[in-house]
Design brief:
Blueprint: H1 10-24, H2 35-45, H3 58-70, H4 78-97, H5 119-129, H6 140-160, H7 166-175, H8 205-218, H9 223-229, H10 240-247, H11 253-280, H12 286-295, H13 299-302, H14 307-314, H15 319-333, H16 337-352, H17 380-395
Length: about 400
């Protein structure tokens, strides 16, 4: 299928690329439209992360490159600068590949081609969320244009004041929109050395300490921060629910409440995910059959979820979504399996139309393959890689 769109701004383009990346990730397609709630929990627990981020180092390589814009390294024309930023990211990726391929963006297409979505595009929201960049309203192109403007203003004032006395010069420079007067970035001290020397995907100790500090400082109540503060071994857990079961008694009360809601929602929505796969496979999917044999013994328990608390917590006003979830809950409490199936079929038809809905195309798919989301991870598996990178960087000096 060919997909095209017209975008009128960089922000609109980024939103569309987010959707495209989600649709191309194996097992990530949100067939029943519950992704709003999933992402609300994920942003709460692991702020700054996304499913397409690969390694923690990119949270710093991108800022290192972008900081050089202020130093005039890439010229004075915004479009030229943006092109050179992309070129520099590609050069860094090639250098990283000399030592390690795991998690290097572009590893599959380099050296002959480059990615459609650059590291700066993938990590920009996270860089702002973690306050590595201080203005969360600016896109990268807006930042570049602002820096060009400030540098131009500075140069104009200096040129106009060449014959003035030094005191006036200094005062005018201070008032002129000098780029040096803006604090766009929070960066570790490693930036000020030649950071390209021996560039590797692993974090330096100072970088690991910096990222850990930013996460804890800017999002102290998050699960992300709790894990890092307590150095929890995330590799011991293969799912969000397993993590919750293990640490629920040690986390702060507010975080525990949020994790409990996420845990309950994960169990509850398994009813829909599993029945969806049974419908599409005409009851032939072995994994779905095994899961349903377990779920049906806990149907009422799973359906006792407080959906209203979730709606209130995240200000969920999407009426069709709320209707779907409330109806699913009522049918599950009544243990009415036929009704559950009807609700699921209606939901996918409403989301996609009858021609595209998979529930109307039984027999077209591999009956042994799981279709769509199997369980909600809330980006725990994605955050694992970032957390492990920080731990590994710390371990170099035993921080």
């Amino acid at each position: 299928m060919l997909l095209g769109w017209i975008d009128f701004s960089e922000k609109e383009r980024e939103k569309v690329l987010d959707v495209v990346n989600l649709l191309t990730e194996e097992g990530a397609v949100d067939e029943l439209g519950i992704g709003i709630i999933r992402d609300c929990f994920a942003n709460l627990f692991f702020p700054g992360t996304s499913t397409i981020q690969t390694r923690a180092k990119c949270f710093l390589i991108v800022p290192y490159i972008l900081k050089e814009v202020e130093e005039g390294k890439y010229g004075n024309r915004p479009q030229d600068i943006l092109r050179k930023i992309d070129e520099e990211e590609r050069k860094c990726a090639l250098k990283l590949l000399e030592n390690d391929k795991e998690g290097v963006i572009g590893a599959r297409v380099l050296p002959h081609r480059w990615v459609a979505r650059s590291p700066s595009n993938i990590y920009w929201n996270g860089i702002k969320t973690l306050k590595i960049f201080n203005d969360d309203s600016l896109s990268i192109s807006e930042y570049v244009k602002l820096v060009c403007y400030l540098r131009k203003q500075k140069d104009t004032i200096k040129l106009g004041n060449r014959n003035d006395d030094a005191e006036d010069n200094d005062r005018d420079d201070k008032d002129a929109g000098d780029v040096d007067g803006f604090s766009f970035w929070n960066l570790p001290d490693t930036y000020y050395s030649n950071w390209r020397d021996n560039l590797r995907i692993q974090l330096l100790p100072e970088e690991a300490a910096f990222l850990k500090r930013q996460i804890i400082k800017e999002h102290s109540s998050s699960l992300f921060a709790f894990i890092l503060k307590n150095r929890i071994d995330v590799n011991k857990y293969n799912s969000f629910n397993a993590l919750y079961e293990s640490i629920k008694d040690s986390v702060p009360e507010e975080l525990r409440k949020d994790m409990w809601m996420a845990y309950e929602f994960n169990r509850f929505i398994q009813i829909a995910f599993t029945q969806f796969n049974l419908i599409v496979s005409a009851e032939r999917n072995g994994r779905a059959l095994d899961k349903w044999n377990t779920i049906k013994g806990y149907l009422k328990e799973y359906a006792l979820i407080d959906l209203e608390a979730i709606y209130v917590r995240f200000k969920i006003t999407n009426y069709p979504l709320r209707t779907f979830l409330n109806s699913l809950k009522s049918a599950a409490l009544a243990e009415d399996i036929d009704k559950i199936r009807q609700i699921i079929i209606k939901r996918e038809n409403n989301l996609k139309g009858k021609a595209r809905a998979k529930v109307n195309r039984v027999g077209e798919f591999d009956e042994n393959a799981w279709i769509g989301i199997e369980y909600l991870d809330y980006r725990f598996s994605d955050a694992k890689r970032i957390i492990n990178d920080i731990y590994e960087g710390e371990a170099v000096i035993g921080v």
